[in-house]
Fold Outer membrane lipid asymmetry maintenance protein MlaD.
Amino acid sequence: MRENTTEVVVGAAVLAAALGFLWYIASATGLSGGTAGLNLTANFRSAEGVTVGTDIRMAGVSVGTVSGLDLNLETYRADVTFAIDEGIAIPDDSAAVVASEGLLGGTFVELVPGGSFEMFADGALVQDTQGAVSLIQLLLKFVGGDEA
């Protein structure tokens, strides 16, 4: 009888630890249900390095994540959907820029706020975008002496 009680207690502890771990992973990656914040869309010429889960930052502070990434077959541009945290209002003339943390750093999307007093509504399109700059293309331009 004592062995059965020990097995049940150990099994319950393992199950509780596994459920806690799954809850932590879901909350850390944003999988724990939809955010009640703002959803925005932007079209980039190049979204190189951006994936679902990539940080959205303003002034270096994370304000959301990329929730969707698709190729627009009409324009051949990357359609990126952002999930912005609840309570953050973004001026409707803001720009979205694919940026890098350095030469070997990760990629993130920087929202550069504009000066408008009007704010983006849920589901709005960010008009002003700047895609990723390829380091290889920059090096080839520099080595080749291309002025253009």
